[in-house]
Amino acid sequence: MDHPREKVLSAALEMIGEQGLSKVTMAALAARLETSGGHLLYYFGTRDGLFLETLRWSEQQYAVERAPLLEAAAAGEGDLASVLELATIYLPVDERDPRWQLWLELWARAPYDADLAAAQRELDQRWHTDLLQLLDLLPGLTDREGTSERLRAMWDGFAIAIVNGGGTALRARVVEHTRAVLDAFTSGCP
Asked: Is the distance from CB of 24 to CB of 102 less than 8 angstroms?
C-alpha cells in the first residue's frame, strides 16, 4: 500500500468526524489519500471491513490512554478518581466523536454479522477487564462485576445521548453520575 495502514485508518476516522459515516466511501477515502478505491478494497475487503479495522485501531489508541491508570492500579494505586478518569476516556468527546459514530453504526449491524458481533464483544471485554482492575481498588465495593456492567451500560446510554446532541455539558454530568453511583455502591447502598 502506498500509505501506511495507520494513515488510512486515521484518514477514515477524520472523515467520519468531519462528514459522518454515511458519507465515507472507499472512493472518497481513496481520493483523500491519493490512491485508488481498489487498492483500499484489496487491503480491507469491504467498507465494513475498513470500518471495523478503524474501530479496532481507534480502540488501541484508547488503550494507550488507559495504560497509566492500569499501571497505577497494578501497583496498588488508584481510587475513585481513577474510575472517573476512565469514564472520561470511555465517553464521546462531543457530538461528532468519530469513534462513537463508528460504534453506533457497527452496533446496529452486529445482529446481522457474526464476525462484527464477535469483534464488538472482544472490544467490550477489554473495557470490562480494565474497569474491573480499577474497581478492585475501591473499598466497600462488593459486586465489582455487576458494577462494571452497570457503569458501562450507563456510559453507553449517555454516550448515545452525547452523540445525539447532548454535547460536552452532558459529558461532564455523566462523570458526576458515575461518582454518585460509586459513592452509593461503596457506602453499602445498592
From this structure: no
**Helix orientation angle between 144-161 and 98-109, rounded to the nearest 10 degrees:** 110
The pLDDT value recorded for residue 190 is 54
Q: Answer yes or no: are the C-beta atoms of 100 and 16 closer than 8 Å.
A: no
Specify whether the CB–CB gap between 101 and 16 falls below 8 A.
Answer: yes
DSSP state of 22: G
From the options 3.40.30.10, 3.40.50.720, 1.10.357.10, 3.40.50.850, give the CATH code of 5-186.
1.10.357.10
Q: pLDDT, tens digit, for every residue of 37-46?
A: 888 998 899 8
Alpha-helical (H) ranges within the chain are: 5-19, 26-33, 37-44, 47-74, 80-90, 98-109, 114-135, 144-161, 167-186
How far apart are the C-alpha atoms of 189 and 49, rounded to whole Å? 45
Q: pLDDT of 49-107, one tens digit each?
A: 899 999 999 999 999 999 999 999 999 998 999 999 999 999 999 988 999 999 888 88
